Amino acid sequence: MPTSFLEIVELPDGRIALRRAEDEEALVILDFSADAKAFLQGHHVEVAKAMLSVGVQMAGRLAEGDFERDEEGPRVLH
Hints:
Elements: E1 6-10, E2 16-20, E3 26-30, H1 34-39, H2 44-63
Antiparallel strand pairs: 1-2, 2-3
């Protein structure tokens, strides 16, 4: 992915999007359920920022080859 500034925005429908600053198309969209928003007591935007920040950092590390994935066996996501 070319280097560009990324921004996190809250869309009119309440979803949180990560996009290039010069583009309206979202790269990633987070959609918290009403239950999750209630549980987070209105702090879902801060949680989304943290989630996206870690994701961007991880993507950078992957691009630099800092991670090796064992191709054997199933992938467990948790």
